[in-house]
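Quick log. Single chain, no ligands specified.
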Amino acid sequence: MSALATPVYEIRAEARRPGFGRLTRIELRKMLDTRSGLWFSLAVAAVTLITVIITALVKGGHDATLARMFNNSVEPAAILLPVLGVLLVCGEWSERTTLTTFTLVPDRGRILQAKLAAAILLAIAALAVCLVCSVVFGELLPAPGGAGSVSIVVFAQGLVFLTATMVIGVAFGAAIMFSAPAIVIYLLLPTAWDALSSTIHPLKTLSHWLAVGPTLGPLATHSFSATDWAHAGTTIALWMMLPLAIGVWRFSHCDVN
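-> predicted structure:
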């Protein structure tokens, strides 16, 4: 009897385990259903819209090309939106929901994977908003030479840009686990490195390989060469993969209060 009972129990437990799609939807709700998440998302959308409008109006509309507006709209989203990724991870500890979350889903790896999937979906939605805003104002206020177009390669690179920055936000949140220091370090550390590498001569060579702004920023401007991708890949390895590796270990081993 006991030999037969154990497999049945395991099958029933497996059947009760929430699917990955459901976990991802829950993590999306955690990002957007709170007042802070909702208002922050609306603020990012407003900043994106204002950036597109300003781009369309300056210099008598000469900058109102679709490619330029798309690039300018992606920049604020890539900088600000990952803060939601930081809060998504750190909120489990600051809001003391870890006990409930890890009791319902003991496999912490699945929880972190769902958070990453939710962050990527938000990045895709943000890219769609950037493109729609650019297309609308590119038609309303076209440049004297025409609004032009955005190549599919640049659009795909814009998706890589937003996705990478969102994952960086989740990675910093998982590595630090406290909202305030994680947000400050996420915003300050890459900016400080960019500033130092652009002003201190021995670091200028490294800025082409490890600085976020010079290597990832142009993703939404032009098609990358093999060298550009090598620079971007090195930057992603430092600012995304390293904190993510630390974050996976800490997320899996940190005590639940």
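Residues 18-253 form one domain.
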